[in-house]
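pinging the channel bc i need a second pair of eyes. not urgent but kinda urgent?? the chain im working w is below, pasted from the shared doc
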Amino acid sequence: MPKLFEELKRRKVVRVAGVYAVVAWLLIQVANNIVPALQLPAWTSTLIVVLLLIGFPIALVLAWAFEVSPDGLQRQGAADAPRGDQIPVAQSANTKLLYATFALVLVVAIFQIGERFMGNRPTLPAPSGNELSAGLSPLRAALPLGELERFRNSRLRSYVALSPDGRWLAYTARLNGTVNLQLRDLVTGETRTVVEGTLEQLFPVSPSFSPSGEHILYFVNGSGETHVVPRAGGRPQALAVNTGPYTVAGSFYGAPAWLSEDSVVFTNDGGVVETLHIPTGEIVTLDIPKIDGEANIYPRLMEDGPWLLYTVLTSEGIGSARLDAFNMSTGEVKNLVANGFNGHYLRSGVLVYMRDNGLWAVRVDGQQMQISGGERLIEDRVEANLTRGSSSYALSDNGRLVYLEGGDVAAESSGADRWVLSSRNGERLSLDLPANAFHPVFSPDGGQLAVTVQQNASALGTGASEHLLGYIALYQLADGSLTRRSFTGAAFRPKWTPDGKQLVYGMLMDNAWGLWITAADGSGQPRQLLTATEPVWPESITPDGDGLIYGIGLFPPDGIMRLHLLSLQETAATGQPLLEFGDRQFGAVISPDGRFVAYTGNELNRDTDDRASIRDLIVRPFPNVNDGQWQIASSVGNAVWDSSGKSMYFLRGSDIYRAPADPENGFRQSAPEPVFDLTASISGGGSSSAPGFAVSPDGQRFVYRELAAESSFFAAEMTHAVLVDNWIEKVRQLLPVTN
């Protein structure tokens, strides 16, 4: 062994190793500082380390095989010098110093390398305290979340939230028909399920932690409710008032957030910001200025107040949104960022927000609400839906960042949705209907579809958010042509008269709701059937073409839904009350013989805590609706009668089912059967109160909106979040303090 070391020294291998280690360490330090400054990809530093590791054994081999002499580069042994058996004392001291230096540099290099390659463990220590740590380098790690499927509506893989101290990560996990709210301890790596949900009933989205981190607020998709669950575990509690995300034309914008440990702040249906005191149920409307066509979403308290940060959604969509701040003490409003959404203020005086698919930052005086210096792009690949204004990132008060890396999922998944015409014998035909078409209804002869073609409806005001508004069009199944049939206002939910000659639809025009009727062939002018001060829409027309059942009112808990009956033959008609519901009831359809009316709702489950998740198919006599009541099926979506009047089709989960609805057998309930195997690829294709599918008059063909479950975009995949500890240090480097 001593001779080996002597030979390594003689061939200068030890010296080369020491010099290489020093140079490598310096390069790593330089890269650690210039990579963020130049906004290079995060993997640049890792690549440099890998290249240096690969080069190290190569340098040692070259040092062993070659030496630099006055005659140039020569192979070792060409001019072998004599060796003695004794090492001089001075040389021994130098050797020890060289070894000590090499060992020290090697330890530092190993630490630097380990910091990067061991950083993908999910057990990083949580930063201590609520203040940001200065002088520490950001540490980036890959955080495995498991096999996840994308959400069909937002296209996001997960909704994430961090506790204020950065220790706890809450995230949603969708897989195989379930959507659970998971909680991970980022210190121990332990993960457990906090809330369980199913796609057929309820599931949690948009979680957020209370200021203490002891409670989690989340929106319940499927009921419109907002729940609170203890972080330590326990039964979720529904808030007394619906504080769900602001909804426009079936799309969610923003999410409720905590104002204090016992209060939340949210955006109501009118785009107005309100606060809710949880123990008392008291609601206070904040006097934030808002013009028609705008909504104030993503309200979030900045530090301990009095400033409230929010996103102003304009009629042009999230791409033109801006960030404003409202002083809850003085009523003052400050315009902060002209183009951004979903902002988050850090206590260091940094405002972080989304713009396109990037996470941007700018310095802000938290007391005066004044921008200081220029804004900078910090992370350039944050998964977001730039149509719906949703994104997958979360920040803690102490500067820890978690996000999912990706692009604009709305653009990436474009073309995945399609309308399909399917027959009972398995034949399938893709229809050339636009992606923004909804509410399909077969004409009585089965040759056409009447649809709503959705348009931007964010400027339409209160009540419009529950409906998909746009214009009415007819689609010819024979040649695929699409012809517009309404040209004013914002129309929705067409219904054919039994003779196929006219269309009845709802419309919002000049801030007034109404029911209209027009000729299906385009002749003549539309005629208004009635006007209303609240949302109104057609549900079903009697077989003789004389009577129309229509829905009126706001969806609970903001209002009461009613069913009224209107004569289509009368002029200046007013509807007569038919049924009134204190909860959510949808989709009234009259049987082919005109003797019964069916609808879906939860009136049979009002005494259960999860009544919003249970919707039954109910049949009553018509028009004397109080003369009887029968349950046809449970856990269903909206339904339609078949042509015989003895059974009904409805959605359950992802498939179309058929259940007997025969008055001759007393509407005896029996197990529904799938119509045919569609796979789990059918979407509601419309708002929750209207069927997202259509059945031809002969009951042999079905039209529905398919989301291509076979597509790799929606398939389950191993998902990793990016975790950046002490991320604020990177922001500090890119946003130097300016005087």
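so Residues 382 and 405 are 5 Å apart (CA to CA). and The chain is about 15% helix and 40% strand. — does that match what u expected or am i reading it wrong
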